[in-house]
Amino acid sequence: MALTGIQILKMLPKTNCGECGIPTCLAFGMKVAAGQMEIGACPYVSDEVKETIGEASAPPIRTIKIGAGDASFSAGGETCLFRHEKRFENPTGIGVLVTSDMTSAEVDGRIERFNTLRYERVGVLMKADVIAVKDSKNDAASFTALVRKMLDGATDAKLVLMSDNAKTLAEAAAICGTRKPLLYGATTASAQNMAAVAKEAACPLAIKGANLDDTVAVAETLIAAGIKDLVIDTGARTLRAVFEDNVVARRAAVTKKFKPLGFPTITFPCEMTDDLLMEAMISSVLIAKYAGIIILSDLQGDVLFPLFLERLNLFTDPQRPMVVKEDVYPVNGPDENSPILVTCNFSLTYFIVSGEIEGSKVPSWLLIKDTEGLSVLTAWAAGKFGADLIAQFIKKSGILDKVKHRELIIPGYLATIKGELEEELPDWTITIGPREAGHLPAFLKEWKPAA
Predict the structure, then answer these.
(1) DSSP one-letter code for 236
(2) What gap in Å lies between CA 166 and CA 198, rounded to an integer?
(3) DSSP string computed for 108-127
(4) pLDDT tens track for 384-413
């Protein structure tokens, strides 16, 4: 059960030293209770207190990390059933399966597609996260050779090592070194041996259940053995079954605090169908309904891109607008004679407008005004993108030191504020730009400073 701020305060030193960055211990305790700070930020609490508070304030779905440092991938950490209740925390990992019985060409193709199928949207790099390496031949030598190939060929991939042999997994995990893989998978029969390997390698461990009840039994065994970092596979291999299991597991963990199911799930659309497009459909359901990791049989752009967009939308905090920093952004290497454009700081607006300017090849200055993440018309209607505020921003932005001319291009939808803006900036010429960003390239190529 989560602790309140007052309960946490009782375990703090109550010195109000401020070394945690918060002026009082009470305020710090409140932030820890709200999940806004870690208890470790206080330099004076004991390890026992850290463990007690950490366990009590942990999310119902435990956060599991695969890999190390900045190259790690996190799954779990979820606290709610529905995104609108708060937000979903860690985006579903998308991965591809390689097996030891594949030909070299098949493996190389998957590595190449893993490395090249990458897209940027609203400043976010969208790419696959995981490669699952399966010991399909039950042969340690070929499996470890395949793992080495993944380590060398896909340097930023997070690995899932799949073998029924605990000794083989131990050898492969040792090869991975600091790139801590997820070890898959512990069954009722192999739980103790797999637990020993996971402890020795300091790696998270996946449960390979026969069904939901069996998964719970294996989880209880591993938790009793001291394994805290678990990922669960309930064994479901149809869309209906895996959907139902994911929902039951999330509800049990979030509403009932049922610890044996309080872990992220790993699912295998690659084992549910022979059709890659059907895999994509299954994956789209599982991204929305609680899968921590999904494993595909192959990677193709027409399959991946829609999944990336779905993931991006679902795992965007609905309570926090997507914004870029208020600033002057040079595009295409502008100089003192380059045009000046102004727009709002809604991320989608910025990346669309800047993308069109880049495509025009016209060196330009793009001024981004803070509108608290609102789009152009919405910000204007809310009084956050009016002539007076734009004028103040122009004067303090530093653009006056960068250009010789005094001509400002405003969005076409703000044509009505042209007169007001000319009053606020009497030395400037205000030009109304196109309404649609797609028309910017042609507009900029014809633009010349007013005489």
Answers:
(1) -
(2) 9
(3) HHHHHHHHH--EEETTEEE-
(4) 999 999 999 999 999 999 999 999 999 999
> How many of the other CB atoms lie within 10 Å of CB of 285?
18
Q: In this structure, are residues 24 and 16 in contact, taking their beta carbons and an 8 Å threshold?
A: yes
Question: Would you say the C-alpha torsion 306, 307, 308, 312 has a positive or negative sign?
Answer: positive
Rounded CA-CA distance 242/253 in Å is: 16
Phi-psi region of 123 (alpha: psi -120 to 50; beta: other; left: phi over 0): left
Task: List beta partners, residue 265.
Answer: 232, 291
| Whether the Cβ atoms of residue 133 and residue 143 lie closer than 8 Å to each other | yes
DSSP characters over 19-76: TTSSSSHHHHHHHHHTTSS-GGGSTTS-HHHHHHHHHHTS-SS--EEESSGGG-EEE-
User: Per residue in 310-351, pLDDT tens?
Assistant: 999 899 877 777 788 899 999 999 999 999 999 999 988 998
324 in Cβ contact with 347 (< 8 Å):
yes
Q: Domains in the chain, please, with CATH?
A: 5-56 (1.10.15.40), 64-314 (3.20.20.20), 327-446 (3.40.50.11600)
Cβ burial 300-328 (10 Å sphere, 16+ → b, else e): eeebbeebbebbbeeebeeeeebbbeeeb
* Unique residue bearing structure tokens 């209607």: 381
The side-by-side arrangement of strands in the sheet containing 340-344 is 327-331, 364-369, 340-344, 407-410, 429-432
Predicted TM-score (pTM) of the model is 0.78
Nearest Cα to 40, choosing from 61, 56, 54, 26? 54
Per the DSSP assignment, residues forming a β-bridge with 51 are none
